[in-house]
Here is the input.
Amino acid sequence: MGMPMKIRAGLKDGVTEVKILMQHEMETGLRKDAEGKPIPAWFITDVLAQYKGKTVLDAQFGQSISKNPYLLFRFKGGAVGEKVNVSWVDNKGDKRSDDGVIA
Here is the structure.
């Protein structure tokens, strides 16, 4: 399981803004180590965000996304004190899921 995500969510004028910092190496598979051997590809492939069991974001990532990806999105609705759940899966099958509370 990867490192915990940093999730900040805020409500303004009926719109919830969610900011996520994911801790992941995001290797492309194109770089080489100090000995010249290829570093295997290792990157997040799918990101899912849900509010009250309803999907508010469903994204597919690829190897071109940078290390420790930052993602910002908005959705209509939300309520202060409610949770937004964000989860990801990478190409090696590793998974992570964390909650952020709407402020």
Remarks:
- Residues 29 and 60 are 18 Å apart (CA to CA).
- The chain has no helices and seven strands.
- The chain has one domain: 6-101.
